[in-house]
């Protein structure tokens, strides 16, 4: 079976698994801090996806947020980048507004992206060069917008953060308004559909954006880091995703601010 068809089936089955598993109790643990949560369902879903991929494609490699693929240091061959639950805080507090996110790269090049909005059972998928879809409906090309007339997705934590908050504050002042959804993967598909015009993050991991970048690109959107630099699919970085017009406009806020650039370099290093 083609990787793309297999990926669509796999993420749908993983969605069924989560919806079934939610009917039983699950354990919630803190990871790096009391607000950084992980549940049994995150671990079990990642194991489910991992095992299914390797059953079919033993030679493929997999990076998962919850521990699989720590030995992957290069992008040779077929690489699956998996976030079993993106939006774990929403999962724990709301039992909705979370996604499974799976990006596939072949020799470092985007191949396919899959994002399942689990509780709404909407599957977003894209094969590089062949367009992006919400279920069976192809998503249209994005329109350019200006910040002053746009909604943007942004977590308020970045606005109050020392060293970078002042730049995000300027962006918030100039935007029509902000939205905070709590799942980077859903922020990407909301951007791809024009529900918001852009999504900004100071720090994301590969599993947060691997699928979203591919889906967004297929609607004409642009993803770089906040300094307009290309993102390395194996590293954490800041992310600026949006339609080409607003992407260019937003990039100026960050690239013209020496204090922000210094904080960014300190957090993420030189490119
Ligand atoms: C998180 C979500 C959230 C983003 C965080 C991510 P997780 O992923 O995508 O929207 O702001 O940076 O870590 O931990 O729920 O998989
Ligand atoms: Ca995530
Ligand atoms: Ca996660």
Describe the structure.
The chain is of the alpha+beta class. The chain folds into two domains: 3-138, Fructose-1,6-Bisphosphatase, Chain A, domain 1, CATH 3.30.540; 147-268, D-Maltodextrin-Binding Protein, domain 2, CATH 3.40.190.80. The chain has nine helices and 14 strands. Helix 1 (3-21) runs antiparallel to helix 2 (40-56). The model has no long low-confidence stretch (mean pLDDT 96). Bound molecules: D-MYO-inositol-1-phosphate (IPD) and calcium ion (CA) (2 copies). One calcium ion binds at residues 42, 65, 83, 85-86, 88.
Biggest sheet statistics: 7 strands, mixed
Q: What's the end-to-end separation, in Å?
A: 38 Å
Please bin the fraction of helical residues. 25-40%
CATH class descriptor name of the largest domain:
Alpha Beta
CATH architecture of the largest domain: 2-Layer Sandwich
Strand order of the largest sheet: 3-4-5-6-7-8-9
Classification by helices and strands: alpha+beta
Q: Determine the number of helices (DSSP H or I, runs of at least 4 residues).
A: 9
Total domain count: 2
Which value, in Å, is the CA radius of gyration?
18 Å
| The CATH superfamily title of the largest domain | Fructose-1,6-Bisphosphatase, subunit A, domain 1
Q: Which H/E pattern describes the elements? A: HEEHEEHEEEEEEHHEHEHEEHH
Tell me the total number of β-strands.
14
How much strand? 25-35%
